[in-house]
Amino acid sequence: MYRIVKKELLVPNTIYLQAEAPEIARKAQPGQFVIMRVDEVGERFPLSLAGWDEKAGTLDVIFLIMGRSTMKLASLSEGDCIMDIVGPLGKATEIESYGNVLCACSTFGVGPAIPLAKALRERGNRVISVMEARDEGFLFWEDRLKEVSDETHIASGDGCRGKHRRASEFITEHLKSGHKLDRVFAYGRVFMMMECSRATRPFGVKTTVALTPVMVDGTGMCGCCRVSVGGETQFTCVDGPEFDGHSVDWEVLIKRKRAYLREEAQAYDLWQPDNLRKIAGLAGLPERSSAV
C-alpha cells in the first residue's frame, strides 16, 4: 500500500498526487513512468513521473481524469492508500550535452518535462521551455518550469500571453527566425506531440516524444502498448516510452488509443452512481477529457 501525502487540483480536470514510494524514488530517472492499481478490482494504468524525492521517499504524478480508473484515483484523499505502484518502468531519457534544447509540454506533460529540463540544464544544455495551454485557467507550475529553464514561453489558445498559437507554431516561428535548436523534446497530448514533430521535420531537428498508448502490464508481455516506429513494431513499456517523433506512425497510435472509448465510457458510467460521495469534491470538474 502506498500512502498519499499530498493531493491538489491544479486546474480543471488535472490532479497532482504525491505518494510514499521510497524504493521507486531511489531509482527514478527522467522519462520513466509507473503503473498504478487503485484497489483490488482496479485496472493497471501508467502515469509519467513528474518528480521524486529520494530523501523523503516520495514520488509525484500529474494526471487527467479520463475514465473510471483515473476518477477512482482522483477520489482518494490525503492519507488514503493506493494499492499498487510499480516502477520505475521504461527507458530513462538519454541526457547528453546537445547544446540548445527545447522542451514543449502541455497538460499532464508539464510534470515530466520539469525533471527532464532540470537534468538537461545540469548537463550544460541551454533549455528553452514552451508550455501549451487552452487558456489562462489551464496554466499551472509555470514557476517550477522557469526555475529549471533558461527561457520560458507560453503558447495559449486564447492569446492570453501574446498571440494565439500552439507550441508547434512557436517552434516553427523560432526556427524560421534563425534560432538554432539541437534537440526538441515533447510531452503531453498526442496531437501536440505530433504537431511539434511535424514542425521540426523540415528543419531536420531531432524530436523526442513520450508516447502514451493503452498499457496493461508494463513489462512487454501483453503487447497492448505496441506502436509503429519507422515501420517496425515497438513496445512502449520496454522500448520507450520515448521515441523519434519523425518516425512514429501517429495515425495508428491515435486509432489504438480510441479503440476502447465506448467501453471506457460505460465502465465510468456504471461506477459513478455508486460513488457519488467519493467524487463530491470533484463536482466542479468538466466532463472526461481525451488524451488525444
Return the CATH architecture of the largest domain. Answer: 3-Layer(aba) Sandwich
Question: Which CATH C-level class of the largest domain is it?
Answer: Alpha Beta
Strand order of the largest sheet: 6-1-2-5-4-3-7
The pLDDT mean sits at 89
Strand share of the residues? 25-35%
Poorly predicted parts: 286-291
Structural class: alpha/beta
Helix content: 25-40%
Tally of discrete structural domains: 2
| H/I helix tally | 9
CATH superfamily of the largest domain: Nucleotide-binding domain of ferredoxin-NADP reductase (FNR) module
What would the principal axes of the Cα set say about the shape?
A: globular
Distance between the termini: 31 Å
Verbal overview:
By secondary structure, this protein is α/β, with parallel strands linked by helices. The chain has two domains: 2-90 and 260-273, Elongation Factor Tu (Ef-tu), domain 3 (Beta Barrel), CATH 2.40.30.10; 93-210, 3-Layer(aba) Sandwich (Rossmann fold), CATH 3.40.50.80. 26% of the residues lie in helices and 30% in strands. It has helices spanning 22-27, 68-74, 110-122, 142-147, 167-176, 190-200, 236-239, 250-257, 261-271, and strands spanning 2-11, 14-20, 33-37, 45-53, 58-64, 81-82, 84-89, 100-106, 126-133, 151-156, 183-187, 207-210, 226-229, 232-235, 242-244. It has a seven-stranded antiparallel beta sheet with strand order 6-1-2-5-4-3-7. It has a six-stranded mixed beta sheet with strand order 10-9-8-11-12-15, with helices on both faces. The chain has a two-stranded antiparallel sheet with strand order 13-14. α5 (167-176) runs parallel beside α6. The protein is globular and about 55 Å long.
